[in-house]
Amino acid sequence: MRRRLLIAAAVLALGGCASTPPQQDKATELAAGKFKTAQQDGVLLLRPARGATSLVTARGQARIEQPLANEAHTRFLVGSISKWITTVAVLRLMDQGRIELDSPITAYLPELPRESGRVTVRHLLSNTSGIPNGLAQALKQDRAATESSTLTPSQGALRYGAGAPIFEPGAKFDYSFTNWVLVGAIVEKVTGEPFQQAVARLVLQPAGVRDTGFAGETWTSLPQAALAYDKQKAKRKMSAMPPMVAASGTVYSTAADLVAIADAVYAGDLLSNKSRAELLTVQHAEENYALGGRVREVGSGAAKRRVIWNGGVIGGYKTLLVYAPVDGAAVVLLNNTDIDQSDQNKLAEALLDELLQAR
C-alpha cells in the first residue's frame, strides 16, 4: 500500500508540474524513490498527457568502469522497439504508394522462390509469415561467424529468408528475426538506399530526434551511450549487431526521443490516418501483436486507454515504451542491468495506472 501511495503522490504532483515547480521537485523526489526500489539502474520518463511537462529520473551507472552516471539524455539500445520504428518507415512508404501491406513479398524481392509469394508484407510485420527462421538456425550452427557477418539486409534476406513457409501465412505467430531481415531488404529495394539511411530519412529526421540512430561497431564509443551489464554488474552483457538485423533490434535512443517519435506518429503528420489505424490494429490476438509491436487495453472506466506496449531486449538492455495515442500519456523505462522483463512490465503497469487514475 505504501508503495502504491508513493506512485500516486508522484503522479498527482506531476500533473501540476508545468505551473508549480516546487511540486515538480517533490514529484521528482517521490518518483526517484519508487524508481530506486523497483529498478536499480536506468532512466524513467513519465508524462501525464501530450503537451505536459515530462518527469525524467535517471539512476545508476551508464558505464561502471569509468564510472559514468546515467542521465536523462543517456542513450540506450532499445531492442525490438526497432521493429516499431521500422514499421513506421514501411507505412510511410505505403502512404507514398510504394509499398502495399497485402502485396506478396515477391513483388519487391523477386529473387525469392515462388513459394514466398504466399507471404505478404503484413505477414512479415506481424510475425505470422511462416518463413523458417534461417538466421536463428545459422546462429545455432556457427554463432561467431553469423554475429560477425557484414551482410546487408538485402544480402541476408536471400541467404536466410529464402525458405518456403512451414505453416500457412497468417495462421500462427512466430517471433522470428528472419521476418525483419526480409522487411529491411524490402525497404532497401523500394528506396534504393541502405536500410539505416532510409529509416533515418523517413522517420528519424521528420520526427526531429537527434539522439536516435542505428548502433554499429562504434556504439561503445558514442557519446552518452550506456553499456549493458549482467544483474550482478560484474561483467558487460552486450550483443552482436550485424547490419542485416538492423530492422529487428539495433536502434539506440533516449527516453525523450522515443516519446517524440510516438508524438510524430500519433499526433503529427508523419503518417496518414489509414497508416495510424494499421499500426494500432491487432493482427494476432493471443499476443496482442499489431504491426511491429503490441497494442493493449489498460485501465477501466474513464481511465481506460488503448496503448502501444513496445518492449525491447538486447543483451543486458531492457526497454519499454508505453504510449496512449489518444492523449499522449507515456511511460518509458530504459534499463542497462538486465532487469527481468516481468518486473519492468509490472512497474510500467503500476505507473501508467496511477497516471490515468490521477487525472
List the helices and strands and how they pair.
Elements: H1 2-15, H2 21-38, E1 42-47, E2 55-59, E3 61-63, E4 68-69, E5 76-77, H3 81-95, H4 121-125, H5 134-141, H6 143-147, H7 153-160, H8 177-191, H9 195-207, E6 213-214, H10 246-249, E7 251-253, H11 255-267, H12 273-280, E8 294-298, E9 305-314, E10 317-323, E11 330-335, H13 341-357
Helix pairs in contact: 1-2, 1-13, 3-8, 3-9, 3-12, 7-8, 9-11
Tally of discrete structural domains: 2
Q: What is the CATH-assigned architecture of the largest domain?
A: 3-Layer(aba) Sandwich
Average predicted local confidence, pLDDT? 89
Could you give the count of β-strands?
11
CATH homologous superfamily identity of the largest domain: DD-peptidase/beta-lactamase superfamily
Rg is: 20 Å
The CATH topology of the largest domain comes to Beta-lactamase
- State the separation between the terminal residues, measured CA to CA: 20 Å
What is the CATH C-level name of the largest domain?
Alpha Beta
Principal-axis shape: globular
Order of helices and strands: HHEEEEEHHHHHHHEHEHHEEEEH
Which segments are poorly predicted (pLDDT under 50) over 5 or more consecutive residues?
1-32
Fraction of helical residues = 25-40%
Largest sheet entry: 6 strands, antiparallel
Q: In DSSP terms, counting alpha (H) and pi (I) runs of 4 or more, how many helices? A: 13
Sheet with most strands: strand arrangement: 2-1-11-10-9-8
**What percent of residues are in strands?**
5-15%
Class of secondary structure makeup: alpha+beta
Assembly annotation: single chain
